[in-house]
Design goal:
This is DUF4595 domain-containing protein. The protein has a domain of about 160 residues: Porin (Beta Barrel), CATH 2.40.160.190. It has a 16-stranded antiparallel barrel. The chain is globular and about 55 Å long. By secondary structure, it is mainly beta. The N and C termini lie far apart (about 50 Å). It contains two helices and 16 strands.
């Protein structure tokens, strides 16, 4: 089961890395993590042959994300001192447990569907002495599926190493950055978004200080690599108002197996 899920995710990693399923990743946005007075209100996405969609975000009086709506369907967020919960109309639920301002675990009730049966995923999060997320353990239906180890340099995530429990296979992704400071990073331009159950509010420790411009992913038992290139347009406050992601899956001899691309236009409300 774990191997099946792993290879399905690998086969579609180009899509996951630039958009993923709207229910699982793109429903969330960090509200104003750097205090520049701006909140993300709308995302217009064009995924090429995969279609287009729009997400609208609503915040409560305290600035927390309260609702995200796309295609007439809304995920509603509620908050307690130690937990954030997001619920869709069909009952799909995501939860983030907080301690000391950081996420220590998360839960997604419908992470993967096999023959009509939804399997939940639970993740635990560990941070290093500098406040960066360093280790993520993922449990699929209570069984350890993978362990991710994150490495940082100069305030940026430079490598993620994911070891799969079933067969010991290793998935390694390296990241490159520009000198542009990252402000209000959206999921498509925040490297940790494909590893964690992303939630609003900056609860995963310090994020990378600069803007990611390239990621290169390799699997230990497969040749080739997946290369994703990011480009942006920024407003006067440093918000990325346009993000383009182009991905190529290449063999070691340079042959391109497949290509994918996505464009995101983002709208902010600034004080």
């Amino acid at each position: 089961m774990q191997k099946t899920i792993k290879y399905v995710m690998v086969a579609f990693i180009a899509i996951i890395s630039i958009a993923s399923c709207k229910k699982e990743i793109n429903w969330n946005a960090k509200p104003d993590p750097n205090g520049n007075g701006c909140k993300l209100t709308t995302v217009n996405a064009d995924l090429g042959i995969l279609g287009q969609y729009t997400i609208n975000y609503v915040y409560d009086a305290s600035g927390k994300l309260s609702k995200a709506t796309s295609g007439g369907e809304s995920r509603i967020y509620t908050y307690t001192e130690t937990k954030i919960t997001g619920v869709l109309p069909d009952g799909e639920r995501t939860e983030l447990t907080i301690s000391g301002g950081k996420a220590i675990s998360s839960y997604n009730s419908d992470f993967f569907n096999v023959n009509g049966v939804s399997l939940p995923v639970t993740r635990t999060y560990t941070y290093n002495a500098d406040g960066y997320l360093s280790v993520i353990k993922s449990y699929l239906d209570k069984n350890l599926n993978s362990t991710a180890e994150l490495t940082y340099s100069n305030g940026n995530l430079t490598q993620s190493k994911i070891t799969y429990a079933e067969d010991g296979e290793i998935e390694t992704t390296t990241y490159e950055y520009s000198s542009q400071l990252a402000v209000n990073p959206y999921e498509t331009s925040d490297p940790i978004s494909v590893i964690v159950d992303y939630m609003p509010g900056g609860y995963f420790g310090k994020h990378s200080k600069n803007v990611v411009i390239k990621s290169i992913q390799r699997l230990s038992n497969l040749g080739g690599q997946l290369v994703s290139d990011y480009s942006y347009k920024f407003d006067a406050k440093g918000n990325a108002i346009y993000t383009s992601v182009k991905s190529e899956q290449k063999l070691d001899d340079g042959t391109i197996l497949n290509e994918s691309s996505a464009i995101f236009n983002l709208v902010y409300n600034c004080k």
